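Q: Could you fold this chain for me?
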Amino acid sequence: MPIILPPITRRQFVTHSLTLGGTAIVTSRTLPAANSERTRLDPNRVALLADTHISADPDLVYPGTKWPGSPVKEDEHESVNIAQCLTEVTKSVIALHSRPAHLIINGDCALSNGKESEYKQLLELVEPIRIAGITIHVTIGNHDNRENVWKLLPFLKKEQMGVQADVIELPHANLVLLDSGKGALGDNQLNWLAKQLDKRADKPALIFGHYNPYPNRGVRPNKGMRDGSSLLKLLDECKHARAYIYGHTHEWQHDQRDHLHLINLPAVSYYFGKGHAHGWVDMKLTETSAQLELYCINRKHKQHGDRRQVSLKDRKTLS
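A: Sure. Below is the predicted structure, expressed as structure tokens.
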């Protein structure tokens, strides 16, 4: 099953900090959560994040537009403080009047190859979210090392380790989280997915995985998931599968194939194209639709507030 970080109380946070030899101080990052514990959690609201790429160094500034073949000139690259990006997203999510009950980090939590020190920094940065009562679900990306994550989560049971795939059952839709961290799902996981969808045909399904299912049409080319065509074939044939939501490309994009929407989440951290958006997506579920709204870290960005809608029912079944 996927890595799940359950909510924690402030007392647990203090105990955990002292156990690690730290000083339990409520910082400015945790104040919004600590001062609004009575804020309602909405089971039909989910915060969607991807590609946090946290470094062990909280002060690291990274030039995302600088990559082999980048069209950006050498003196025009754009950089971000990676930890600060996640801190801003954390504040934005916690500040919502009705908070999402769930938050998904859709792969690539770490910057390099998933060092323990990177995950320690990630866990510290997301503690305010957990204190706010929100459950965090983590999928595996190509920069992640699942064994190093498991080492830092002693509450995980042995049977929870392995392929990180599971279903989150919500009132209006089922969220299916997949493990594409090695660049492919594999036959066993595709068969598992087909069975899960068949068992839950009475409710719309939104499927999550880190990798793009086909070659990226955005600024930085990549081939995507090796068995993406098999995934799409399965989802094309399953009419209650309404969307595949992924990261990896660091771009906010939207395609549609008949009933199936393909939603590409932007990175929380750095972006590949000059001036591109980065941030997170607020998803609100109703009986008939999933409404997605982009929250850019730069609130003045032209795409801030951009919205997409995924129909959860065919027109003929709408009442």
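A (continued): Residues 85 and 124 are 14 Å apart (CA to CA).
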